[in-house]
Amino acid sequence: MPNTRIAKIQRDIPINNQESQVIIGSILGDGSLCQSGKNYRLRIEHKADHLEYVQWKFQWLNRLCIAEPQFNSIHNSYRFGTIGHPDLTSFHSLFYREQVKVIPDNIIEYFTPLCLAIWFMDDGNKIHNTVSISVHNYSESDLNKLRGLLFNFGIKVNIHFDGHGKRLYIPTYSYLAFERLVKPYVENISCMAYKLP
């Protein structure tokens, strides 16, 4: 069956809840939505050392893809993209303003531990006995929304500045609450296990 026919069939099937969680976690992290015809598509790309992670995301989203992950020799990375889909266009309206990522006011309606785990694996790092998540490009208003979002999950965060920009820092007293939510996902991806203390 031609790829255009496959894509049309896929576009007619709504994105399900689990696919949405992977998409939202990726949008918060390193994923990007770009225009594809009248709709938007999701692009995922991670360094070659994280191929297992790329494949893990692809397993969640392969119904929305025509091609498997490909090696990008220029960036020494692996990447894949979904088809353009009306539901991804809706996500673009939620998470972008003038092509800049923003945090929607109603983010709590969409956010789950799987979203958090993906966001952390994309943008988080281990710092001593706790973790931080890069939020360099978000506004102060968006940072406050993220703080409130994590607080709803029992996680208190501070905002720190490093040489590159802002980070959400999860102090030791909130780490166990964070770990309970993300560890079931992170520990099953060997190339990502190093991110947890």
How many domains? 2
Tell how many strands the DSSP assignment holds: 10
Order of helices and strands: HHEEHEEHEEHEEHEEH
Overall average pLDDT: 92
Helix tally? 7
State the helicity in percent bands: 40-55%
The main sheet orders its strands as 1-2-4-3
CATH homologous superfamily title of the largest domain: Homing endonucleases
* Apparent shape: globular
The gyration radius over C-alpha positions equals 17 Å
Structural class assignment: alpha+beta
Under CATH at level 1, the class of the largest domain stands as Alpha Beta
CATH topology term of the largest domain: Endonuclease I-creI
Instruction: Please state the oligomeric state of the protein chains shown.
Output: single chain
What distance separates the N and C termini?
47 Å
Poorly predicted residue ranges: none
Taken as a percent bin, the fraction of beta residues is: 15-25%
**Name given to the CATH architecture of the largest domain:** Roll
Describe the biggest sheet? 4 strands, antiparallel
